[in-house]
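Why predict the complex rather than its parts? Because the way molecules touch one another can change local conformation, and only a joint prediction can capture that. The input here totals 771 residues.
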Amino acid sequence: MTDDLESFRLETREWLKANVPQSMREPVRGDKDINWGGRRADYANNPEQKLYMDRMAERGWTVPDWPVEYGGGGLSAAHTKILKEEMRRINARIPLSSFGISMLGPALLKYGNEAQKREHLPKIARGEIRWCQGYSEPNAGSDLAGLATSAEDKGDHFLVNGQKVWTSYADKADWIFCLVRTDKSTKQGGISFVLFDMESEGVSTKPILLISGYSPFCETFFDNVKVPKENLVGELNKGWDVAKYLLGHEREMISGMGLGTTGGNPLIDGAIATIGLDDQGRLADPVLRAQIALYEVRSQAFSAMSERFIDELKGGRAHPAQPSMMKYYGTELNKTRHELIMASGGSDALEWESERSDKGSKARTWLRTKANSIEGGTSEIQLNIIAKRILELPSS
Amino acid sequence: MPLYLNEEQTMLADTAKDFIGESAPVSHLRGLRDSKNSDGFSRDLWKQFAEMGFTGILIAEEDGGLGLGHVEAGVVLEEIGRNLTPSPFLTTAVAAVAALNGSAQRERWFPGILSGETVAALAIDEKAKHTAGIAMQAERSGNGFRLNGAKQFVTHGHIADLILVAARTGGSANDREGITLFAVPKDASGMTAEAERLADSSIAARLRFDGVEVDADAVIGEVDQGDKVLDTLLAAGRAGASAEMLGVGAGAMTLTVDYLKERKQFGSRIGSFQALQHRAAHLYSEMEVAHAAVLKAQQLLDSGAAEASRAVSVAKAMTGLATTLSVQEGIQMHGGIGMTDEYDIGFYMKRARVLAEMFGDANYHANLLAEMTGY
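Output of the joint prediction:
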């Protein structure tokens, strides 16, 4: 077993060395460097991003631990960990990031039927279809199960009417996985989980301008959208189980934001660049230095926690509500990190449009992170879940 | 290697949990304190630790030990922490053994440690706050060395059979070069110990060395190159103190969460109040993260990885922060009763403070990490 892992490590190292383009080993500098895939992805200015994704997808390594028959690499937990370590070793970027990979895929693997898995998973793995998530509604935020978007049974199809909000990248996505109400008489027990094409008649999106000046989220409207019955995932009125399972994966993904990016440490490098070091080699602002140092303790400890969490998940020993802890801790940490980046950057970091500031990337990212502890269930919701499900504290 | 205990380690954890929980729960500490026990721990219990094989966890099999690692030592320390058990395990079976491993002195000292006869103490600190500086002098004298100076916060130093002393044979106080580590037996003439009871009822000595003569063979490792052995000792001590603190923090959290489920006010159990639920859930999160940091440091130490010292500092700082929170929240959420000597939660707070300070506190290690990173 150990020999097998060791030879896998060596082969992987060689293969990555030969196949990861140099530009894909540079630190990620913004959303443009993240490959989301999809029908509308434009690789004209970045052909190596496509090349890299295709090479990885051919081996199933965009989703290394998914089964081979669905476009995955069929790797065990131990092999997947080695692949990730070897990618990190050369600062290789993630070849494809998408809600299909991090959220829908795991849910389809667990709840989808064979036809759904064969239809959707390989397209996710190859970056052909970009998915968005239709969960929150204007009157169903933290109280998600209060959603009202309706799906009426019309024999061979559902007729979907209603509105979603905070739909990430709905204007760029090809398909949506969506929670709809199929029974108004009960709350959680009347929700179903359906999939449909965003090009279906009756779907429209409207980007929401955020405090960052960007519009990563949309309002999404459904006006008599026909959804074929075969696009129901799991049983009718059992969509809440799928939704919760998927939320666990979403929280896992968002928690990863607390880990910062690969290659260098932009917080520390940035602070040194702006503030400088004193004659003892210490950041010249001693109070900020202390804040960064204490933040780094938690950040590095959280890296260990993420490793432990993934190992426990793969080993089937993680508490089912543990993703709530990861989401809570990771997002709060990430907000702290960006407060420190702003404090380190001073007035340079305040520039909003200049080329010097990469069009205000520090300020805009800082503002963007404020949503981390709101989206995917607020920090307060996560604390409720930890208190009730892990600590088993009494209900009021 | 996954970041959780394997089957053997889990079995050891269960054994340690049962044994320490039954033979030395918090009432054991209370008894020692109330009887003004002058050793600061139970010698019978130390013998039992030896019979269980615990004292030989870090000693190689060919030297008569179990040949296990820091993960296994940590498993025992976590239970020591959870039960607030006074024990020389951390100084003797972890830090001292780690320093003596591979040295010639192990033949002299390991048999006594394995049998539960010998207790070791660590004479490192010279000031109230732990620093990397060693100023105490060791001059060459005849065949050996003459030690002059003072040490403090030497846990078990008043009764220890063996005292590991870091002193300077060259260079000046903050140099790494020029430190030498000595194994000094308790009867060395010119060494005096002033036993001081600490806030947590443990006893630490202030040691004075007035021309203490030791042979050349008292040197552990190489003369002037003691920084390497000292690093090994401190890494083991810090990882160990982190594991013990994890147990203290977890024990305090258990008491507190249990109390939230029992105590009624306004006709409800107070654990149903969201203001307290959120604080408890935040505490749980901090403790989980600390737990992962400790296991990571122990695994890296056991694999001899270069990044182990960084991970050890992360673990010591993180457990310091998380456990301090745990005992503070513990007393606050217990309310008035948490301030009474009758309730155990106060004992947890006192022990946490002592362990947080040992081998450098959270600020010390955060600073160290910053220096290692170059800012």
